Protein 1
Amino acid sequence: MEEQEAPFPFNMIEGMMPMFPMMAVVGWMIVLIAFLIGATGLASSQATFFSDAKAIREGAAAGSAFVRANIDSHVIETWVPQFKFLGLGLGLMAITMALGTIAKRLRRMGMVISRHLPADLRSAMPPIPRRVRLFQLSTLMGVMILVAALVIGIVLATGAVPSYWNHSIANDLNPAQPGSELLAKLGLVSSFADWLNPLRLVGMAFLFTAITLALTVIIGTLRTQAAMLVRFYAEASGRR
Amino acid sequence: MDHLTPPAPAWQMKVFPLFSLLGWVLILSSFLIGLIGLAPTAASYWGGNAKAVRDAAEAGSALLGQLQVLSVIPRWLEPLAFLGVAAFMTGIALEFSTIPAVLKNRGQVMSACFPLIVKLGGK
């Protein structure tokens, strides 16, 4: 009565499912690291940047402590939120995997009970619901979107963002003219958050959908098993 | 135990898909508004005009209109996306709320069936 092994890539996902406590801990640690970076790195660079008058900090030349602090602030604000959301996503993935594990155990329990019923009163085991594959795919999709958002964040945080802010605000950035490389970079660094932040939530939506589907699998399994037992009870009572 | 029945259908199972759908609509809308509306406007406003020109923009000018869009829309767009997250969570909570009744029924069904399984089942 053993189940057939799931096809690739679902066998890989199902193999990972029992590892959900570790995933939850990793997710929590990522969020903790994001908090620590904010509390130490971001807070201290903001404190350094705002430690003097506007004319001084904006007039500071590239390479100065003010400009370095300004770069650090913007770089951290570019990649750390993506990193934090990946941590939250791993937490949601752990929940989905836990629900998947529960659904699998419920099915196995149903098979054990079914094996103890008389053969002529035993209902055929229903096939694995298609929703199982859907919630596994939805989980993968959600995590992949969050990883992609982090990669985009890292690319921006190591490229356009430090390259733009590594200038004196008053002497280089403010006088930049249309068509200049600096102003083109300003357009990029000022606009990516408008689509990257909602993209993270699209990833989260896939993970929430996976949880929703996993719950429907569990509830459906419980209801199907109850219906099978009720049928058995009705038939077996008549025979008694 | 003559009237043994499977768990009754729960209203929550009819309502939760609406919340999930609402979650998708709100989150996808905010993504599309950001991608198609806000990002090009921001790129054009910040990347296409010198600071002196932006600062000197007069009332009623296109530049000031762009600045208004960039300042006003994110104020409601982000809460809208989080409303979508809340809709998903509500749907999930509704699904969870059906489980106790299903488990209670399962207990009743199992306790009724168990003596029969012991009596009729051989293995």
Protein 2
Amino acid sequence: MRQRRIRWGMLDSALLLLCVGALAYLGYRVEIGLEYRWNWSVIPQYLLRYDEIDGWVPNLLLQGLLTTIRLSFWSLLLALPIGLASGLLRASVHLFNRLLGGCYVSLLRNLPPLVLVLIFYFFVSDQVLPYLKIPALLADAPQPLYRFLTLCMAPPDQLEAFIAAVITLAMLEGAYIGEIVRAGINSIETGQWEAAQALGLRRWQLMRHIVLPQAFQRMIPPLAGQVISTIKDSAIVSVISIQELTFQGMELMASTYLTFEVWTTVTILYFVLTYGCSRCADRLEARLLQS
Amino acid sequence: MSKRTLLMLLGLFLFTAPLWGAETRQELVRQGTLEQIVEKNRIRVGFSTFVPWAMKDKKGGYTGYEIEVAGQLAEDMGVEIDFVPTKWSGIIPALLTGKFDIIIGGMGITPQRNLKVNFSEPYEYTGMSIIANRKLAGGLSGLEAFNTPETTIVARIGTTAAAAAKKFLPNAQLNLFDDEGQALQEVLNQRAAAMVSSQPFPEFQALKYPDRLYLPLAGKTFTREPIGFAIRKGDVDFLNYLNNWIRVKNADNWLQERYDYWFTTQDWKDRIE
């Protein structure tokens, strides 16, 4: 694909001036209209702090960002198989399977995520997680596993809450991913199905070798959107006191009353993360198109 | 069944009944939070961020009056401590579902809350005060002056400050916010005339924004609220331990001393920023 050379015209200059002017006016209004004493100088120490022993270490906000990344990573890892299963169920030839998948998807999609998170945390996780006996397992765990868990998931004392949050998010995102998978499967032309059947492929062979590989390529753009959406949705679990970015930001605001500085910083951190992800998705898509 | 066997069975029952009672009691003690804490060598403390009760410090840990109280309690019990920061609006359900053992978070003792949780004796008292916007409230003084329908009052949701605002300022419009920073911002931005909050928040803010905010009650409080530890119901042993701990700490004046440090000075400010 050849790109046309971009020429800088009068209209572009005018638009640029207009944008800068609008931003300057906004800044001016904030300065005049908002009775607020800005104090940006204390924010950097909440990102990184100097420790006598360890040197530079991430502080509250960066720790929160790391937790957000871990949370999103594990929920997505769990949501993808859930979504694939629900998508396959929804596209199944059997009525029972379709009803099962449909039940899951319509239940999860029609509840506000916030309500779902609260219900799941206070009721469901309470009935299920104690049986896993996580604290007892951790007490006997060898040191490397201990370090691995702390590094990749959460510190042992927060692990139970973290797992509850991961499962909730995965269930929620799984419903949306399921619909993406179903749409992907349904978008494959009937000719492909018929050809595969004519070759004598069984249903699952047909899915595995013909339909899913093609569907996967078409699913990439909406899946990338869902990944970004998961990162954003992870902010919801701040209500159950998972110490991710939003929660840490709100704690910091309650401690320092630096409402706008902290929110602005949190916004920028989220944007950097999600924008990075969407650029990666764009490149992945471009590469898949080439091959 | 003959009369004799019946009598023997009755006798057996009468002899063993006290034994069952003792067993039940031992079981109760063993299941109690106190024993569980000692057994696990770990007390989990739930709290929410309130200045200066409990705050994030700049090293990523926690600091504040309640944090010191909790730390001392754990030290006296000889166990490790886990701090579980929790949103104030969900703190009681979290306690009831066992996410932590105790709330040490400046929780005011109220009859409504007491229906759901047990409170220890008060280990400190707090009071409500108001802080007002100079331009909007324009030198109104006294609480009654704010009790008019055209006055907007803000407070933090779910706190005793919100309850006090409803009770003492029934005619004013009340807007509730999730944390104190947002509520204060409403007053600073002249969208609300005043904010109801527990001491010493109003004083500290009046010192920070002397040209915009003032204290209509001149530093006095209009309520006096007892603050206690909150624990799950039905746990006599733990409650007894806490009450006596408070007695001991009151007797050697430790509680008062720490209270004065956190509530009447701002020496701790550099731990936060």
